[in-house]
Design goal:
Elements: E1 2-5, H1 17-25, E2 28-31, H2 34-43, E3 50-52, H3 59-70, E4 75-78, H4 91-100, E5 106-109, H5 114-120, E6 129-131, H6 141-150, E7 154-159, H7 164-175, E8 182-186, E9 194-198, H8 200-209, E10 218-222
Parallel strand pairs: 1-4, 1-5, 2-3, 2-4, 6-7
Antiparallel strand pairs: 7-10, 8-9, 8-10
Helix pairs in contact: 6-7
The chain binds S-adenosylmethionine (SAM).
Amino acid sequence: MLYIVATPIGNLEDITLRAISVLGSADFILAEDTRVTRVLLDRYNIRVPVISYHQHSKIQKVDHIIDLLREDKKLALVTDAGTPGINDPGNFLVSKVLEALSDCKVVPIPGPNAAITALSVSGFPMDKFVYLGFPPHKKGRQTFFKRIGQIEETVVFYESKYRVMKALEELRGVSKIESRSVMIARELTKQFETIYRGTLDQIEMEMKANKNSTLGEFVVVISPRGKNNREES
Ligand code: SAM
């Protein structure tokens, strides 16, 4: 059995009872960064051997994991935060495991995810939304932002602290969504959780006024075209 276990995106209390029980009864926990996962495991007194598995892990590591599954070991995959596979390692391992062991049970243990957490407080129409992951750093960045301007539905993407202000400029200059409502969620579930809401101008002004506002982790949400914003429908 391979369990794909969602873990907190900040607040260590945001973990399900089932996740604690699965982690506690696993033979091995596969972790993106063992130091990050240790903090969580210590909090819940979980004493299970941890194996490192991350995006740069070699194929031999995948083979070793497949061997453990062949020996009927119960494995639990976690990443640094949120739901494994959503913009972090996970999918590759799942696909390789299913390729090698078609009868292996891959079991999802649901829980936090930063994009869904941000969307849940946006107030924007959520019958449909488009999730775009991270914008590329360089090549393809313009295209990414151009595409956002053409999307009708609510859009959500992740951005790092190094480029979040740049992203605001690009949403204005390249996406041309200055009349749409925007929400930026910073440090969700953590001590300095901040939700910025408004037009691009309003948010930019607010973030520039506070020098700490660009520290931490960010999710950007944009309202649909012509709805819940100042654009004519
Ligand atoms: N698998 C994760 C999930 O389920 O949300 C996402 C992993 S991705 C590598 C990490 C990115 O998610 C961060 O750079 C940030 O954009 C977003 N993120 C994660 N935790 C967050 C938090 N507490 N507040 C805001 N954004 C967060």
